[in-house]
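hey m, so remember when u said the tokens were messed up on ur end? i reran from scratch. heres the input so u can diff it against urs
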Amino acid sequence: MHTRLHKPQSNLTSSHNSLFRRKVMPKKPETKVNFQEVQSEKPEEISIAFQQTKSEPPSVIYEALDYAKKRSVTFAVLMQRNGITLANYSEVISLSTTISVLGDTDPDTGKIRIKQISELETIILVLAHEMTNRLLTAKFGKYKNLVAKGEITPKQFALKWAELEKEGEINQLKVAAQIEYSYGDEKTDKLLEQYNNDKTTDIRARVVAGTTHLARYEQLGIDLRKAYLMDHANIQTVEGFPDFRFDSNVAKRSSKGNYLIVKSIDSGKEMNVVRNPKTGKYSKYED
């Protein structure tokens, strides 16, 4: 799950590090802490604030989280739903010099990696996208499992995957509007202005997956399928139909339980079969 913007109908275009246009941000906060401000922080964040008076300045991730949660309702809710605070963020989020995309989320550990960049506003928008992805890891995993086992095609997988990534894009645009970020694109900035003035503005209708994204997601589905067939499938054939190969691991039992419904690995066609308990071989079921 990576942060790569879909191309909305508002002609928002992006590519890797040139994704965002620079906006002048407020000066970074000094490390000195005003006691009255500290008193208003959550208990677990107070010690962090006092530590900053004695140690190095806060990380760019800390600054991004702190800045965005105070200005964006959407961002604050994403932090809350993910259980991320200014005290524990380093357990979940880290900067990386090894990833080629702006951000990604490990579907197994839930860890978020952000590309080593210094622009505060870019990090905020990437975090909005990846925190959304993190909440959807179960659904991402479900679709990966379905395509791997051949229960959906790579094309179907690509469409479902794109819909999940779309959620991250929508939240990213909402956060951009709330922190008054400018993409430098007239149509996109106008959309953000409309959303700020009217929260019923349909951002979802303006976000669509581009052909490049869909092609990449489809290839991911193909790769997942190949890996499963190589490492996990229990490939069988049907007597009298040597070219009909199927994976017995995903065979479905009929409603009456008297035969199995299997699908050809190669053609996707289905066949009703029965298994000989003595030989373990399969034959076509005849009424």
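this time it looks ok to me. Residues 16-229 form one domain. if urs says something different then somethings off w ur setup not the seq
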